[in-house]
């Protein structure tokens, strides 16, 4: 059994690496063709051979990094459209970087047309590669027999089908944690086990059994698990120790993060000033109301500040005095201009002013309204743990969640970010944010009539405050 599993894992790993390598080679060949057929011969001081090889190799490195940022190689986990979108973004930013490098080598603006044609070829390759490689992958590696063991979270099978993962996980059984603990043998003929929101005491019994039996396990964590992920491993008293403390980033990271916030917000305000002007005119011309909308939000340690947005709703949107989230496209409070600027995220741009003033950061947990946060904390007291770090314009939960993602899940994602603060992660999240501009799921609203996102996700009931 172990030998068979090891051979399967080796075959799987080699197969995935080969599929990735084919993708990278195809993209490199497309760029190399543009470089050698046009740009190389027009350099002020032409490179020797290894100089040209270095440029092409640089393309491969930059492209690989952007692919990792956008998960552009995860053909076994994402739908075809999602992979193509990720590939396209990775190619776009890589080609922009290479154009900038070419500009430095030329000492003038080079003709962008060959690189644009190269980009078009690369996107075509990405579409063909994604379709073929996903088909080949699932022919070579058919769906694994899977079981879902649940406690506080249900509906994992619905999510597997919704996200097109039925070709990867063939769910044969679903069982409550009580049923599984009473008969662990139900796992024996399974290849994959999902442990969905199970308390650590019960989960550990099942997890250890799965490891003994060499089963692949996917654990949907609880808040306590995410908190423990920040623990520092050390030794005291000749014993292994896990030290956990409140968010306490290094001074160097805090300084670098603030410098980045200032530079990014200043550049953003300058570059996007025409967008600010056009948007302001459009809002004013539509209903004569104020251009900006100010709202009280919470940031680090519960500090309150006024956030700024372009107004996307009617002036009387909350005339009843009740704070409520948007229900998305069906929300009749949103103006025609507001619908467009929300879709393109333009309504968020004035928050660059809040970043410059120091109330916000570019990356961090999204600031919540005090009234809504208070409602969340009645069900999930740990929700206040998001306030350990300064709030941000974008964040981990925004990149990997949706507008109507449950507060419990948003909290877990924000705590994952807080657990491992790093400037490299901030930059990665900044680039990953571009992807959500092309996905409608990220703007899905809550159900009509709801004031918060509590219980808005019917497929995952996760509002359990026991960590």
Question: Can you give a write-up of this model?
Answer:
- The chain folds into three domains: 2-140, no CATH class; 144-220, Rossmann fold; 251-443, no CATH class.
- Mean pLDDT is 84; it is low at 442-451 and 456-466.
- β9 (361-363), α13 and β10 form a beta-alpha-beta unit.
- A four-stranded parallel sheet has the order 2-1-3-4, sandwiched between helices. A two-stranded antiparallel sheet has the order 5-6. The chain has a two-stranded antiparallel sheet with strand order 7-8.
- With 467 residues, it is α/β, with parallel strands linked by helices.
- The chain contains 16 helices and ten strands.
- It is globular, with a radius of gyration of 25 Å.
- The longest helix is centred in the N-terminal third of the chain and has 38 residues, at 2-39.
- The protein has helices at residues 2-39, 49-69, 80-106, 113-140, 156-162, 177-182, 200-212, 223-228, 251-271, 273-287, 336-343, 351-357, 370-379, 396-400, 407-419, 423-436; strands at residues 144-150, 169-176, 192-196, 216-220, 232-236, 239-243, 292-298, 304-310, 361-363, 392-394.
- Helices cover 51% and strands 12% of the residues.
Write the layout of secondary structure elements.
Layout (H helix, E strand, L loop, with lengths): L1 H38 L9 H21 L10 H27 L6 H28 L3 E7 L5 H7 L6 E8 H6 L9 E5 L3 H13 L3 E5 L2 H6 L3 E5 L2 E5 L7 H21 L1 H15 L4 E7 L5 E7 L25 H8 L7 H7 L3 E3 L6 H10 L12 E3 L1 H5 L6 H13 L3 H14 L31
Helix pairs in contact: 1-2, 1-4, 2-3, 3-4, 9-12, 10-11
């Amino acid at each position: 059994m172990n030998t068979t599993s090891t051979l399967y894992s080796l075959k799987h790993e080699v197969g995935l690496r080969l599929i990735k390598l084919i993708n990278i080679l195809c993209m490199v060949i497309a760029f190399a063709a543009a470089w050698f057929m046009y740009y190389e011969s027009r350099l002020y001081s032409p490179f020797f051979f290894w100089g040209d090889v270095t440029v092409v190799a640089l393309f491969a490195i930059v492209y690989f990094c952007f692919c990792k940022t956008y998960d552009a190689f995860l053909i076994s986990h994402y739908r075809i459209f999602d992979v193509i979108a990720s590939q396209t973004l990775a190619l776009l930013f890589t080609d922009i970087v290479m154009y900038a490098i070419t500009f430095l080598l030329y000492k003038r603006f080079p003709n962008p047309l060959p690189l644009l044609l190269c980009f078009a070829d690369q996107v075509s390759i990405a579409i063909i590669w994604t379709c073929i490689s996903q088909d080949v992958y699932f022919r070579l590696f058919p769906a694994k027999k899977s079981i879902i063991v649940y406690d506080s979270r249900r509906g994992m099978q619905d999510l597997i089908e919704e996200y097109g993962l039925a070709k990867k996980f063939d769910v044969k059984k679903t069982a409550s944690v009580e049923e599984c603990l009473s008969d662990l043998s139900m796992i024996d003929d399974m290849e994959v086990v999902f442990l969905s929101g199970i308390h650590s005491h019960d989960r550990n019994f099942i997890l250890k059994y799965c490891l003994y039996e060499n089963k692949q396990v996917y654990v949907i964590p609880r808040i306590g698990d995410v908190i423990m992920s920040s623990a520092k491993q050390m030794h005291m008293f000749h014993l292994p120790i896990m030290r956990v403390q409140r968010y306490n980033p290094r001074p160097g990271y805090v300084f670098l993060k603030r410098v980045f916030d200032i530079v990014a917000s200043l550049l953003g305000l300058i570059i996007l000033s025409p967008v600010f002007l056009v948007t302001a005119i459009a809002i004013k011309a539509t209903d004569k109301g104020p251009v900006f909308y100010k709202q009280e939000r919470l940031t680090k340690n519960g500090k309150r500040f006024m956030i700024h947005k372009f107004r996307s709703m009617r002036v009387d949107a909350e005339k009843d005095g009740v704070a409520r989230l948007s229900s998305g496209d069906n929300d009749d409070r949103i103006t025609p201009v507001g619908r467009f600027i929300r879709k393109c995220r333009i309504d968020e741009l004035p928050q660059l002013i809040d970043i410059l003033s120091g109330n916000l950061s570019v990356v961090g947990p999204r600031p919540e309204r005090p009234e809504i946060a208070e409602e969340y904390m009645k069900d999930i007291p740990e929700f206040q743990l998001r306030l350990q770090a300064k709030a941000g314009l974008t964040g981990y939960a925004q990149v990997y969640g949706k507008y109507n993602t449950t507060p419990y899940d948003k909290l877990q994602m924000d705590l994952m970010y807080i657990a491992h603060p790093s400037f490299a992660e901030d930059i990665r999240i900044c680039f990953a944010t571009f992807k959500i501009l092309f996905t409608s799921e990220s703007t899905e609203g809550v159900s009509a009539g709801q004031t918060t996102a509590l219980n808005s996700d019917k497929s995952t009931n996760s509002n359990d405050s026991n960590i």
